[in-house]
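Narrative of activities, Objective 1.

The group set out to show that a structural description can be obtained from nothing but a protein's sequence at a throughput compatible with the screening campaign. Below is one input-output pair from the validation batch, recorded exactly as produced.
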Amino acid sequence: MTKLLLTVLVVGLAVGTAQALVNNPDDFETYALTDDFEETSIGDGAEWYTGWFNFENVNGVAGIWEIVDTSPDNATRVFKQSNTSPGANTQSHWWGRFFGDDYQILQYDMILAESEDTYNRTLVSQNKWENNAYWEMTGMVMLKKTSTVTEAILYSGGLGGLGSEVALPGDSSVTWGVWYTVEMHTDLVANKVKARFGPTGGTMNDWTEWLGYDPNYENYNSHRFLSTGDVYFDNISLTLPPALLPGDANGDGVVSADDYGSVQLNFGDTGVAGIPGDANGDGVVSADDYGSVQLNFGATAGMSGVSVPEPATLMLLGVGSLLLIRRKKL
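Output recorded for this entry:
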């Protein structure tokens, strides 16, 4: 009996602290320092399996790809991408995708490292490496800084009315010489994408709204990292986000009183499953969502979206288990 209760307690705590599944993380620490970084992928040119490949000079000017440990405010090894001509674009591709999984988050750290008053930007998108038309993608995040322009934008779908764009919350804060963490969440079922960013190690800004994209672009096989000027990248990974948590109307991973407010604020809206206020995942914000919040109140998102108790509840479970063990001994 004692062993059984302890097992239940340990399993409960483990579920509550489980981490999401991460695919093909790349922090560059195993790479040799070099001023001539070359393709690292294993593949036959049609199917790439891992690493970096398809380095290109977008404007016909020689690009530069390096692994360095001298980036601003970062003593670790990072990937530097630049060009011999100011204002020219350079790009590379990183293999990484959960094939067969419909929800995933791309995360990476980056810094615009040019001197001030210089055109400096990065565009990171999900598309086919064989296709040089970088507007044909599911989603693309741009961080850009010039002497007159400061932008952080999420694009989706493509040109010709097929896609749209929205500014990332906090876009006016983008500047040179600061590391940022960027996240892009893709839903391949509902054909939508959203993004956010924030200072690395600091508080992330809010997510953008969901943007729809042309489903013809969802069969991507890589991530394109395009830069203008000196840009450094680090800590690149793909993560499977938890499935929709029943009752979580505002999508923060916790079913709380805030979710009642989200239902009220968005009452009557319709759309894809999981739109703001949609606590039960039926794509409609209605009175049923109040019931879903009440039914699941206190739940949090664990691994693979499994509803797990709050930490305080787990603690009470542990204390109760220990008391039962003590009583059994007496």
